[in-house]
């Protein structure tokens, strides 16, 4: 950025940005509190951090809703393609039409997409977006959302155990809080010969390995 040091000659040239006073007041307080030896270096770091915080707040403010993901799942199931992997651009368009914020889509695709490939699993995208839904704060709430009839559960809220294991096993490569030991114990607890499970069964199995 080139600084303009030319004088201001008339009132028409004065355009004071909104919140300038609050920004300068907070900045002055921080300068006085820190008493930096190099005010230029301090100022550069201060405003860079302020800008980063504003960007993070903007992303966090674009919360993903369950209803939006429901619409994406329905669109993926009803588009006539039997393939799980879809063209990334087509999937982005479907997600945007489902009212999923672009920032959330980009964040999810950063985790899901493979370098050099223009295709991605729509199920992996949905799983990743589920982790961004407000109120989903632990494994139990996360799995409960995955088993919702609007996601991967059937009308009775049950999911094929084989599909759950496939999805959860993949998600464990993204979520570092899911250890290999926890995953192995959970899968063993779910292996009772039945093809499906409901949320109550998952909670019982998860509780048994804690």
UniProtKB/TrEMBL annotation:
Organism of provenance: Guillardia theta
Signal peptide: none
Keyword rRNA-binding among record annotations: no
Gene3D superfamilies registered for this protein in UniProt: cAMP-dependent protein kinase regulatory subunit, dimerization-anchoring domain (1.20.890.10)
Similarity-based family: Belongs to the ropporin family.
Protein name as catalogued: RIIa domain-containing protein
Principal location: other
GO CC annotations on file: motile cilium
Cell location: Cell projection, Cilium, Flagellum
Keyword presence, Ion transport: no
Family annotation (InterPro entries): cAMP_dep_PK_reg_su_I/II_a/b, EF-hand-dom_pair
Taxonomy, superkingdom: Eukaryota
Record domain RIIa: where: 18-55
One Pfam family recorded for the sequence: RIIa
Keyword annotations from UniProtKB, A to Z: Cell projection, Cilium, Flagellum
